[in-house]
Amino acid sequence: MLLLRAAGCRRAAAPASAAAAAWLRGAAHRGFPAACRRRAALPAAAGAQQVTSFQGVAVRSLCTSSPHEHPEHGRLVYKGNLAKAVLGVRFFSYSTSIFNLFMMPYIMLKTGIGFESLFIQAAFYGVIGFFTFVTPVTLHVLTKGYVIRLYYKDEMDTYTAITYNAILAEKATVFHQKDVKIPDITKMFTTFYAKTKSMLVNPTLFPNPQDYNHLMGYDKAFYFSLEEEKEPNERK
Q1: Close Cβ partners of 16 (under 8 Å, ≥ 6 residues apart)
Q2: Residue range 178-212, pLDDT digits in tens
Q3: Strand ranges (DSSP E) for 3-49?
């Protein structure tokens, strides 16, 4: 009797399992697993999109930001193209001077110049002193007015010139447009004077020529007096 009941249960369970398998095949045909897979992939896709968007924002921020932007100085109107060359030459000159100072005692001990005549000692000290002190000082005097960057504030009509000081650090000089003086005689290392300090710029490196004209005062109205011309003629 028990065996007959167990066999009947198996027969009843077999159609149920067959129906469940048929339902799963139909669900797979209708695309329910694909939908489940899409739902599972949504968090990963959202995370990837967030990473991509963050990378895009970072790249845009690096591209738009500039190390030469200083809102406190105003708008950048000029940038010298020889800034790295000037810095490199002066740094090399300083390094060779320091090397000479450290090597001088060693050379004197090895060559015995300290025990030679005064004439030889004076010639030796003169050559070493020239390359140690005169060359860096000369380079500083010639390039101290080279403008690395020039900023302009429209509301105040003031300029900020960035140059290198004696220790190769950037130095800011603020001056008004009315403080600009053009030298009467063209000089090699001077384009204009800001109060009493000489400045050197390249007019062709101004992106907007109007900025250079305003800096030099070329955009001001020119007044010509006939009476001033008559006075020299009457004296003649």
Answers
A1: none
A2: 999 999 888 889 999 998 899 999 999 999 999 99
A3: none
DSSP 168: S
Go through 160-190 and write b for each residue having 16 or more CB atoms within 10 A of its CB, e for each that does not.
bbbbbeeeeeeeebebebeebeeeeeeeeeb
Q: Which amino acid, one-letter code, is at 229?
A: E
Evaluate whether 180 touches 215 at the Cβ level (below 8 Å).
Answer: yes
- Select from 106, 89, 100, 105 the least CA-distant residue to 131: 100
Q: What pTM was estimated for this model as a whole?
A: 0.62
Amino acid letter, residue 188: M
Q: Are 146 and 164 in contact (CB under 8 A)?
A: yes
CA 236, CA 232: separation in Å to the nearest integer? 6
Q: What is the largest CA-CA distance in the chain?
A: 153
- DSSP bridge partners of 187: 190
Give the length of the chain.
Answer: 236
DSSP assignment string, 77-114:
EEE-S-HHHHHHHHHHHHHHHHHHHHHHHHHHHHH-GG
Nearest of 151, 142, 166 to residue 82 by alpha carbon: 142
Cβ atoms of 121 and 114 within 8 Å: the answer is yes
- Cβ neighbours around 106 below 10 Å, total: 9
Rounded Cα gap, residues 37 and 41, in angstroms: 6
Token pair for 195: 């109060």
